[in-house]
Design a protein that fits this description.
By secondary structure, this protein is mainly beta. The chain is built from no helices and 11 strands. The strands form 2 sheets. Strands 2, 4, 5, 6, 9, 10 and 11 form a 7-stranded mixed sheet that branches. A hairpin with a 4-residue loop joins β7 and β8.
Length: 128
């Protein structure tokens, strides 16, 4: 059974940092491009950041550019999302999703149905 697992969420004060991780069982995450999505209460789920299978190409939503950094360690089949200077509006459940595509392609933030696998999410709360 394929399972993506997110970890690293929690409660942090504004201006603080968190590092999310995405791992997988039942598949080699190194064979997929990965996107982090988030879903805040009362809002639609949105794409936050994507990384290609090779790790050479990345993409960010305008709202997180300069604050978030996506990376991957294919030897450990793990994808990270380093989140700095967190704001209350970053509060959401964060999901990682795996996407089968060409090695240097970053997946789209749209067409969520095209993603192959999703995790269960990890809660990030930014509050003083």
């Amino acid at each position: 059974q394929v399972q993506l697992v997110e970890s690293g969420g929690g409660l942090v004060q504004p201006g603080g940092s968190l590092r999310l991780s995405c791992t997988a069982s039942g598949l080699n995450l190194a064979d997929y491009a990965v996107t982090w999505f988030r879903h805040a209460p009362g809002k639609e789920r949105e794409g936050v950041s994507s990384i290609s299978m090779t790790g050479t190409n990345t993409k960010y939503a305008d709202s997180v550019k300069g604050r978030f950094t996506i990376s991957r360690d294919n030897a450990k089949a793990t994808v990270h999302l380093q989140m700095n200077d967190l704001k209350p509006e970053d509060t959401a459940i964060y999901y990682c999703a795996a996407y089968s595509t060409l090695p240097t392609m970053t997946p789209p933030f749209t067409n969520e149905g095209r993603y192959d696998f999703w995790g269960q999410g990890t809660q990030v709360t930014v509050s003083s």
